[in-house]
Automatic annotation (TrEMBL):
Gene that this polypeptide is encoded by: LOC127784012
Top-level division of the source organism's lineage: Eukaryota
Predominant location category: membrane
PANTHER family: SOLUTE CARRIER FAMILY 13 MEMBER, SOLUTE CARRIER FAMILY 13 MEMBER 2
Name of the protein in its database record: Citrate transporter-like domain-containing protein
GO molecular function: malate transmembrane transporter activity
Keywords per UniProt: Membrane, Transmembrane, Transmembrane helix
Membrane-crossing residue ranges in chain numbering: 45-62, 91-109, 121-140, 160-177, 223-250, 270-291, 312-336, 356-372, 393-412, 424-444, 519-539
Species in which this protein is naturally found: Oryza glaberrima (African rice)
CDD domains for this protein: SLC13_permease
Length: 543
């Protein structure tokens, strides 16, 4: 062999050998880059970084006329809000961020921000959650639902009455416990009824059976939507029904401590009529959209009153523990309603010179659950701390973060700056601004939680009310109510997610049924606030 040829071939091999591995290295590098990108997205590192980056950009680029604390507060608000809406970290962790961000950025001291996470309002929520766990543990909600549903079922089945029973039960329960656990408790009751019905599979043997299956499917949508919306509507009626009302009360006392507080009874005097109007609208909407003259006949083959009574009989007679939980709950409602009545009849709160709040009696009654025996085993109480492991600390911390942010808005001077920018509304009539505030809050709440919406919107509305010369509650109450009108998208509230996850409803169903409710809610608020609300909250008086 020619030595030159041999040398050329060996040289070619030497040259080509490293080229192939280089090509493989490029492919491996690309695969590693894709894997790194997937890992980056899966671990939400971009979402985690979005908060600090937004805060740094605001602190570095935004100029608020030399107001350093206000600029820092705006940056911290962007940080916390981005973590909330992107779910970069768990909700509870994001809600604790003000505990270290406020002192670091010079907004407020560590003691001042920590106090916002535990006050009378937070005590009210904490005690209510413990009572809700007791009700769920002893299946009291299920017994109540079956009793009322069997009462309204009818014989033969009357779908509008059955819807009225299911929605009415859900609304009543949601008035006394947070609407999210109410939805979680009531949805299995509703789906338990729906499980008797067949799913539409396209294999029906006749046209009539296919039509009946479609009627059943439409009624199933009505039941799930009814539970979701009735839970949200019931939460409007009382302070304990939803976190938004609690946030409103806390921010009102924070911004206007010299004014009379919003009590349980005063809010219920306004919130219950508003909730009843929305409930009637809900029932009418569901009946029009999902009930026809053939629905009752289609349901009769799968559901009657005897089925519900059979399920109720399986629960057995009401035990001593259930009666005691109901007694504690009933006593708490009486204490809530009678703490502050009228100027002529001050209520039992006057005996303690106004030092006792709604949270005080809620924790006191919740404590009784850990003292009263259950009557089952020796030494066993109605509740123990093991049963409280499912306490919704994320909601409690979220409320604390909302109050801390409200304090930060005021302490940093950010509310004064923002209200100055809204001065062009000074000459607008209050009756026109109130529905606008409700719609503004109602749009935001479709894309983030109602509690987060209230936390963001209410401080702005409080300062806006002062700057344009109207009673702040004329704007804060519409903002709070609008934040609860999250009826169109699953992202609006955890209750919407619970209903959407059942598979019975779609986003289209929520939009079709939720739009009329949203319109009725805004219209009812526009009428009730300047009439009934003016009397209840004393909004005809100057601050």
């Amino acid at each position: 062999m020619d030595p030159r040829r041999s040398h050329w071939e060996s040289s070619s091999e030497d040259v080509t050998r490293p080229l192939l591995p280089l090509h493989d290295d490029d492919g491996a590098a690309g695969r590693r880059s894709c894997a790194a990108l997937r890992s980056l997205l899966a671990n939400k590192y971009l979402a985690v970084a979005s908060g600090p980056v937004a805060c740094a950009l605001i602190c570095g680029l935004v100029d608020l006329g030399g107001h350093r604390a206000a600029r820092n507060m705006l940056g911290v608000l962007a940080w916390v809000f981005l973590w909330w809406i992107t779910d970069a970290v768990p909700l509870a962790v994001a809600s604790m961020a003000p505990l270290f961000l406020f002192p670091v950025f010079g907004i407020s001291s560590s003691d001042a921000v920590a106090k916002a996470y535990m006050d009378d309002v937070i005590s009210l929520v904490l005690g209510s959650f413990i009572l809700a766990l007791a009700i769920e543990h002893y299946n009291i909600h299920r017994r109540l639902a079956l009793n009322i549903t069997s009462l309204f079922c009818g014989d033969p089945v009357k779908p509008p009455l059955l819807l009225l029973g299911i929605c009415g039960t859900t609304m009543f329960i949601s008035m006394w416990i947070h609407n999210t656990p109410c939805t979680v408790m009531m949805m299995p009751v509703a789906t338990g009824i729906l499980q008797r019905f067949p799913r539409v599979d396209g294999a029906s043997s006749s046209a009539s059976s296919a039509a009946d299956a479609r009627e059943v499917q439409r009624f199933s949508k009505a039941v799930v939507l009814g539970v979701v919306y009735a839970s949200a509507i019931g939460g409007m009626a009382t302070l304990t029904g939803t976190g938004v009302n609690i946030i409103l009360v806390g921010m009102w006392s924070t911004y206007f401590p010299e004014q009379p507080p919003i009590t349980f009874s005063s809010w219920m005097s306004f919130g219950l009529p508003l909730a009843l109007v929305l409930f009637v609208a809900l029932w009418a909407t569901l009946c029009v959209l999902y009930c026809s003259k053939n629905t009752g006949r289609a349901l009769s083959a799968y559901l009657d009153r005897s089925h519900l009574r059979r399920e109720l009989s399986l629960l057995g007679p009401m035990a001593f523990a259930e009666k005691m939980v109901l007694a504690v709950f009933g006593g708490l409602i009486v204490l809530w309603m009678t703490r502050s009545l009228t100027d002529d009849i001050p209520g039992w709160g006057s005996l303690f010179h106004g030092e006792v709040g709604d949270g005080t009696v809620t924790i006191m009654m919740a404590t009784l659950l850990f003292i009263i025996p259950s009557g089952k085993n020796d030494g066993e109480k109605l509740m123990d701390w093991g049963k409280c492991r499912r306490l919704q600390w994320n909601i409690i911390l979220l409320l604390g973060a909302g109050f801390a942010i409200a304090d930060g808005f005021r302490a940093s001077g950010l509310t004064d700056i923002l209200s100055e920018g809204l001065g062009f509304l000074r000459g607008a009539p209050a009756l026109a601004i109130a529905p606008v505030a409700c719609v503004f809050s109602g749009v935001i709440t479709e894309f983030t939680s109602d509690d987060a919406t209230a936390t963001l919107v209410l401080p702005l509305l409080a300062e806006l009310g002062k700057s344009i010369g109207v009673h702040p509650l004329l704007l804060m109450v519409p903002g709070a109510v609008g934040a609860q009108l999250s009826y169109l998208l699953p992202t609006g509230s955890p209750g919407n997610v619970v209903g959407f996850s059942t598979g019975y409803i779609s986003i289209k169903d929520m939009v079709i049924a939720g739009t009329p409710l949203k319109i009725v809610g805004v219209a009812a608020l526009t009428i009730l606030l300047p009439t009934l609300g003016s009397v209840v909250f004393g909004m005809d008086q100057k601050l």
